[in-house]
């Protein structure tokens, strides 16, 4: 993933959200978004284009492990944060929030083009997909790649 973009939506209104969604769709790369809603804490998310997410989920070994709250479910604060709501229109895009998992699907003209993920989930998926994908390299290619990674700055 070569491009890393951070976007701050200070006053997230439809046209600003629409611009961020269009950016992620056009680039085909994940976009880190910080939402600054008036009167609320900053919210961080990663907008991942649908094709990129499909690739990550293909290579990731399984679903991301979730924290155990003792009762096997979400804690009250998290479930309240992800209440079911009507789809939200942002120009040509429609946002569908999921109650479970913290994701929001972004659709345009009836097709999902991206998803908003929690930063931790996006990072986990990207890393696991990379690790598994590297496991499918032939031994010479894998050795060359590991040598290349060792030369990279942290």
- The number of helical elements comes to 5
Share of β-strand residues: 15-25%
Major sheet details: 7 strands, mixed
Tell me the structural class: alpha+beta
Q: Unreliable stretches, pLDDT < 50, 5 or more residues?
A: 68-80
Question: What's the order of the H and E elements?
Answer: EHEEHHEEEEHH
For the biggest β-sheet, the strand order reads 1-2-3-7-6-5-4
Number of strands: 7
C-alpha Rg (nearest Å)? 18 Å
Amino-to-carboxy terminus distance: 16 Å
Helix residue percentage: 25-40%
Oligomer classification:
single chain
What is the residue-averaged pLDDT? 77
**Approximate shape:** elongated
Explain what the structure shows.
By secondary structure, the protein is an alpha+beta fold.
Protein traits:
single chain, 154 residues, alpha+beta, 7-stranded mixed beta sheet, 5 helices, 38% helix
SSE order and pairing:
Elements (H helix, E strand, L loop, with lengths): L4 E5 L4 H14 L3 E5 L7 E7 H10 L16 H6 L6 E3 L2 E5 L6 E5 L2 E7 L1 H16 L4 H13 L3
Helix pairs in contact: 2-4
Summarize the model shown.
The chain has a 7-stranded mixed sheet with strand order 1-2-3-7-6-5-4. The protein has 154 residues and is α+β, with helices and mostly antiparallel strands.
């Amino acid at each position: 993933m070569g491009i890393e973009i951070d976007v701050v939506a200070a006053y997230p209104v439809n046209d600003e959200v629409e611009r961020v969604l269009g950016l992620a769709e056009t680039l085909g790369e994940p976009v880190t978004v910080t939402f600054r809603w008036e009167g609320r804490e900053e919210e961080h998310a990663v907008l991942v284009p649908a094709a990129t997410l499909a690739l990550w989920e293909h290579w990731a070994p399984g679903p991301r492990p979730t924290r155990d709250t003792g009762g096997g479910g979400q804690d009250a604060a998290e479930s309240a944060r992800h209440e079911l709501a009507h789809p939200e229109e942002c120009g040509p895009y429609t946002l569908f929030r999921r109650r479970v998992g913290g994701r929001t699907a972004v659709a345009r003209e009836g097709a999902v083009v991206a998803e908003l993920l929690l930063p931790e989930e996006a990072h986990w998926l990207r890393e696991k997909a990379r690790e598994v994908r590297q496991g499918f390299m032939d031994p010479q290619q894998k050795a060359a790649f590991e040598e290349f990674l060792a030369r990279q700055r942290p």
